[in-house]
Amino acid sequence: MSDLTPGFIVAHSHRLEELTDLVVRLTGMYPLPPLVNETLLVQSNGIAQWLKIHLAEAAGIAAMLDVTLPARFQWQAYRAVLGNELPTTSPFDKDRLTWRILRLLPALLNQHPHEFQGLIQYLGDSDDPRKWYQLSERLADLFDQYQMYRADWLADWAAGGTQQTDDENRWQPMLWRALLTDVGAAQWNNRAHLHQQFMQVARQLTPMTRPAVLPPRVIVFGISSLPQQLLELLDALKGCMQIVLCVHNPCRYHWADIIDGHELMRLEQRRHAFKPGMQAQMDHDTLHAQSNPLLAAWGKQGRDYIRLLDQFDETRQKSESLRELNFELFDGELPQSLLQEIQHDILDLRSGTERLQLGSHMQPGADRSLDFHSAHSPQREVEVLHDQ
21-55: per-residue pLDDT in tens? Predict the structure, then answer.
C-alpha cells in the first residue's frame, strides 16, 4: 500500500486501447500486495472480458480480479464503512423492488384511484399477471434511477413533500412512501439518508484506518457516465484508497461549454485547456460557431459528465508521484480515412468553418469508412448493417 498514491485520478483518451494500456501499465508498475484483489468497476461483461484478456496478455495470467458493477460496489462500501448491520443486499435493489411494488400496487390503486389514475388507465381491466409484473418492473427501474440521480427528490418525498411532481405524477411520492413503510422504519433503508451518513464517516478514513474489506485501489473502466452520487462516494474514499477513473473523451480540449442551439453552460472549473483562439467567455453566436457540430449535437451526456468530473479530479496534484504514467492519452496520428478525418476534427475541436478552410486529403470514393444508408424501418436498418 505504501507504493499507492491515495487520491482521485482521472485518465482521458479518445481511444479505448490507450486507456487499456494505461490500466495494464498501472497494475504492473504499482502492484497490490499479495493475495489482495484488484477491484475493477465495469458496466458490462464485454468490457470485463476485454480487460481480462489484455491483462492476461501482459502478465501471462489474469487472476485476483474482482470485477463488479458500480451499484454493487456502492452497497459494499456502505456496509464496509457503516457496519455489517446493513443487509448484504439493499432492500431497494431493482429486482427486490419489483416484487415489492407488485405486492403493494393493487391495494394502492383501490385506495387512491384519483392519484393513481394514470396507472389505472394503463392497466385497464386487465388481470394478466404479466402486465402487472411488467408495470412493476418499469416502476422499480424508475425508482432505481431516482435513487442514483435524484436522491434529493426521494428525501423530500419521504418527508411528505411532492417535489418535482405535477398532478399527473402525485402517485410517485405516495408509492415511494408506501415502499418505505413496507420495508421498515430503519433510517438506513432510505438510501439518500444512508449516503449522507456514509459521506460523513468515509471522509475521515485514511490508508491506516481503511476497513479491510475495502480494496486499496479501485479502477473504473469502460463506463460512459456515472451518477453524481457514485462520484461523491468515490471522492469520499479517495483519502484511504487510490481511485483511477478511465474516461473515453473524444476531444483533447475543454469542450464542456460548447453549445447546440440555445444551450449555454457557465465555466467554473476545468481539467483541459481551451483550444488556442477560444476564450473563457464568449457570446452565444461565437461559442456555437467555434464548436464542432457533431460533438455539440451528440456529446451532451459526455460533456456534462466530463464537466462534473472536473469537480473531483486530483490528477494534477497526484501525478507527481506517478510521473512514469501519462493520464492525457491523445495521439496526433494523421487520418487515413474519411471517418478518421471526422474523428480528428472532433479530437481537435475543429468547427465546420475550419474544416472547409483546411479541405480534405481524402480522395472521393477512395474509401468506404463512412457510408450513408436510407432504410424504411428499424428492422431494415439492422438488415442493412448485417449485410455490410
Answer: 999 999 999 999 988 999 999 988 899 999 999 99
Degrees, nearest 5: CA angle 188-234-13: 145
- 295: closest CA among 270, 259, 330? 259
Q: What is the DSSP string of 48-59?
A: HHHHHHHHHHHH
User: Exposed, middle or buried, 16 (CB in 10 Å: 0-12/13-18/19+)?
Assistant: middle
More confident residue, 349 or 287: 349
Give the end-to-end CA distance of the chain in Å, rounded to a whole number: 50
3-state secondary structure of 67: strand
Closest-CA residue to 213 (of 21, 372, 75) = 75
Report the C-alpha gap between 179 and 177 in whole angstroms.
5
pTM: 0.76
C-beta separation of 340 from 368 below 8 A:
no
Integer angstrom CA distances of residue 221 from 18, 31, 281: 12, 18, 33
Q: What is the mean pLDDT of residues 208-231?
A: 92
Q: Which whole number is the average pLDDT over 180-186?
A: 78
Tell whether the model's pLDDT for residue 264 goes beyond 70.
Answer: no
Side chain identity, residue 388:
Q
What local confidence, expressed as pLDDT, does residue 263 receive? 42
Q: Using the structure block, give the residue that is written with the C-alpha cell 469537480.
A: 311
Quote the strand ranges of the chain, DSSP E: 7-13, 38-41, 65-68, 217-220, 242-248, 328-329
The set of cell numbers assigned to 79 is: 456496509
**CA angle (360, 365, 366) in 5-degree steps:** 75
Mean pLDDT across 86-115 = 89
Assess contact for 108 and 117: CB atoms under 8 A. Answer: no
Amino acid at 280: A
DSSP code at position 312: T
* Residues in a beta bridge with 40: 67, 219
Please say whether the beta carbons of 11 and 221 come within 8 A.
Answer: no
Q: Which amino acid is at 111?
A: Q
- Assess contact for 21 and 15: CB atoms under 8 A: no
Neighbours of 32 (CB within 10 A): 18
Among 132-146, 156-170, 349-363, the range of highest mean pLDDT: 132-146
Kindly report, residue by residue over 345-374, the tens digit of the pLDDT: 888 888 878 888 887 777 766 778 888 899
Residue for grid cell 475541436? 349
Grid coordinates standing for 141? 427501474
